[in-house]
Amino acid sequence: LLATRNFYGVLRVQEYGSGTDSSRHRSLIHGTILHGTQYLEPDLARQATTYYTQTSGVGRALESMHPTTRPLKIGVIGLGTGTLATYGSKGDIYRFYDINPAVIVIANRDFTYLKDSDATIQTVLGDARLSLEREASQGFDLLAIDAFSSDSIPVHLLTNEALAVYLRHMKPGGIIAFHLTNRFLDLIPVVKRLADANHLFSVLIADDGDEGMASRTDWVLVSDRKASLQVPQIAEAVTEMEPPADFRLWTDDFNNIVRILK
Predict the structure, then answer these.
(1) Could you tell me which of 63, 191, 199, 241 has the fewest CB atoms within 10 Å of its CB?
(2) Cα 70 to Cα 73, 92, 93, 111, distances in angstroms
(3) What gap in Å lies between CA 78 and CA 86, rounded to an integer?
(4) Does 243 score more than 80 pLDDT?
């Protein structure tokens, strides 16, 4: 349906299926990386798909926060098609950060997750870390960091200094959800080391994504309170992770991509 190029690469919107096929869907692809899929049938259009299903790490984290007597505030670094907005309830605020203006246009024009959400949707254009550094504390219940699926990752979002920025924006007991699914890089030890160095609790949710339009995913959930990660929705799906003992902490002055090549 669409192919467009800008400084950040080539974006394509592709449609699959035809006629009355209930599996008809539309996908956003950046280069060769899938950035979200939505069913076209009205009854299925608000269903979370790909990396964001209810059995994914971020899906389980969000579901563990419902129902609640107070509105939630959710931050998301990396808009994609806006799939996570489908979890929003009335009164919630979902604040999306994205560096690519074309993604914001496409998510609002070619997909309906944002417009159909019951939550209030906010979008912030620009580098997410710089935006967060400039903003007053947002008080997020959950901050999803979803910018690491490609073969060229924004390392500055995975450093000790970046984690300090995220923590400043979290409510006590809030969850930072790192989406680490990647065909080329094993990013799990990076986040595990960041959590340990800052005396935070962390768990890995590795989901096979066997049903429907679900994708296989790795999400690492990080919190300053162990209880936030011990709720049944999360605890029942935890996979053990143990980074190498000599794995060095990533900072703004040091990273080692070669060490994490698959």
Answers:
(1) 199
(2) 10, 8, 11, 28
(3) 15
(4) no
Six token digits for residue 210: 């066997």
Question: Which two three-digit tokens encode residue 130?
Answer: 């710089």
Kindly state the percentage of the chain with pLDDT values over 70: 100
Q: How confident is the model at residue 152 (pLDDT cuts 50, 70, 90)?
A: confident
Q: Which residues pair with 16 in a beta bridge?
A: 25
Q: For 163-199, give one letter per residue: b (16+ CB within 10 A) or e.
A: bebbbebbeeebbbbbbbbbeebebbbbbbbbbeeee
DSSP string, the chain: -EEEEETTEEEEEEEE--TT-TT-EEEEEETTEEEEEEE-STTTTTS--BTTSTTSHHHHHHHHT-S-SS--EEEEE--TT-GGGGG--TT-EEEEEES-HHHHHHHHHT--HHHH-SSEEEEEES-HHHHHHHSPP--EEEEEE---SSSS--GGGSSHHHHHHHHHTEEEEEEEEEE---SSB--HHHHHHHHHHTT-EEEEEEE---STTB--EEEEEEES-GGGG-SHHHHTTEE-----TTPPPPBTTB--TGGGB-
- pLDDT value, residue 20: 74
Q: pLDDT for 156-167, tens place per residue?
A: 999 999 999 999
Question: Is residue 22 predicted with pLDDT exceeding 90?
Answer: no
> How far is it, in rounded angstroms, from Cα 187 to Cα 179?
9
For residues 59 and 84, what is the distance between their CA atoms, to the nearest angstrom? 8
Given a contact cutoff of 8 angstroms between Cβ atoms, the answer to whether 248 and 255 are in contact is no
pTM, rounded to two decimals: 0.96
